[in-house]
Amino acid sequence: MAPTKMKGALNMGFQMAITIGILLTGLVNFGTARIKGGYGWRISLAVAAIPSMIMTVSAMFLPDAPNSMLERGQPGKARKMLQKIRGSDSVNDEFQDLVDATEVANKVENQWGNIMQQRYRPQRIICVFVPFFQQLTGINVIMFYAPVLFKTLGFGDEAALMSAVITGSVNEALVNNDAWTPTRQKSLDNYNDEVSSTKTPGRGRGDDAWKMTTGRSR
Fold it and tell me: How many degrees, rounded to 5, is the angle at CA 214 between CA 211 and CA 215?
């Protein structure tokens, strides 16, 4: 649903939101750990519930995507929603791409059976094991268990939490620098422009999806 020129920024914004959340979590944990009485962890959990509730309530007001409406046989509503999202009535080309892609998707039979075919085994392995090992050995282990790791190195409780805050600050600084440097912005803009300029007139995502599904051009 995102316009082409905004996709890179939105992807980086998602990553920045994660790093900001990690940093704020470290600050909250450091602050609540200093509360006397031993109930600071309750406050920490309560604070963590606030963004979760905001996201849950906000999700109830999200509109349906045009793709979803087309799959449910509501082309009129899908066109109106696309016009509302883009803020313009001139959405014929993009809407036709969505229609073509939906038609191709509906022609594919037994999707789960196709995925389990032997020729797709490498893709299945990658899709399962890459996130699996990322969760076990990647940055998530360091960020989530940073206080525990620092305590095993001999840090005290408060020092371990402060070290986790420092780690989160460095992580946020690196992501923020990567997202907002002029070189990074220019490269993202150039990539999006190249994608838009190399798109063959009259050839949309429906044609690309057809080729990926059947192995031949329409």
Answer: 60
